[in-house]
Design the sequence.
């Protein structure tokens, strides 16, 4: 399938970000990612089907706490964790296996750190898709990993993310502080294009407040990197950093929050089911007896 990138993303920078190893001292995923995962996990109460096998896509950044929430929701279900490259896979194995041995998770099945040999009933991918250089190929890969009648559930950042910081950079005449993020309707179109059905898209805004510029910038470093092709080509000096701190302090302080700095994130949620394959209709069609029986069973109310 043809490559379809999020707006203004640099594929080389995105690939470099994806290959960065997980810091040994970092035993937690970003706070915002964990909060989004918690909200997404609550939405599973509206999905009647209980997956017998499910796959956690890129949990190190997407949510280690979410792994425990999902294991508690589906204690009898078989879980697979998929993380790349090798260094990140090893870190995921170490951190998740350690949490699995805690007394609260003893009733859950052991986690398998490998690509499942057979398709799964649920694929869970939290806060990863907006950093992908070729998201359509990723969604197509998800489709191949999900069983018919199974579903994918994901979240990512939307186009209204960092609007206050973008305004500061534009006013200062600087390149954008981040690449543009894809609209939720475009994600729905991509899901349908690769073969998922009944995509349901939703969004909400989460506004965080910070007591200092340093804390705000530290939060952004945990969440990702600027993948815009027109970003600053190299390191900036101390003078530029001073101007940045001053501009953020002046223009992003909220009187309603006692002068704290505000930063908005648009969170997109999506899920879609993989339908049963249709029997191709041609002038002359040959169908196996097993395929016909399966199709007839699917047609019963």
Sequence:
């Amino acid at each position: 399938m043809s490559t379809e990138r999020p707006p203004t993303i640099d594929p080389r920078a995105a690939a470099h970000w994806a290959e960065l190893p997980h810091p040994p001292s970092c035993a937690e995923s970003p706070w915002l990612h964990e909060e989004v995962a918690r909200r997404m996990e609550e939405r599973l109460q509206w999905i009647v089907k209980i997956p017998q096998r499910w796959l956690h896509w890129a949990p190190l950044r997407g949510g280690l706490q979410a792994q425990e929430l999902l294991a508690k929701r589906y204690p009898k279900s078989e879980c697979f964790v998929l993380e790349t490259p090798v260094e990140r896979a090893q870190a995921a194995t170490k951190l998740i296996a350690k949490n699995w041995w805690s007394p609260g998770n003893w009733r859950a099945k052991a986690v398998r750190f490998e690509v499942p040999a057979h398709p799964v009933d649920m694929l869970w991918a939290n806060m990863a898709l907006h950093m992908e250089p070729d998201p359509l190929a990723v969604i197509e890969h998800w489709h191949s990993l999900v069983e018919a009648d199974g579903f994918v559930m994901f979240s990512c950042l939307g186009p209204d993310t960092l609007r206050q910081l973008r305004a500061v950079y534009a006013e200062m005449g600087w390149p954008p502080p981040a690449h543009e993020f894809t609209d939720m309707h475009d994600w729905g179109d991509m899901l349908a294009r690769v073969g998922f059905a009944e995509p349901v898209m939703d969004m909400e805004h989460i506004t965080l407040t910070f007591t200092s510029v340093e804390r705000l910038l530290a939060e952004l470093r945990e969440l990702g990197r600027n993948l815009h092709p027109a970003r600053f080509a190299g390191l900036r000096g101390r003078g530029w950093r001073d101007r940045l701190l001053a501009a953020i302090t002046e223009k992003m302080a909220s009187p309603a929050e006692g002068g704290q700095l505000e930063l908005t994130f648009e969170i997109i949620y999506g899920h879609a089911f993989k339908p049963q394959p249709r029997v191709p209709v041609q002038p002359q069609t040959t169908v196996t007896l097993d395929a016909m029986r399966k199709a007839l069973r699917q047609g019963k109310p």
Q: What stands out?
A: The chain has a mean pLDDT of 88.
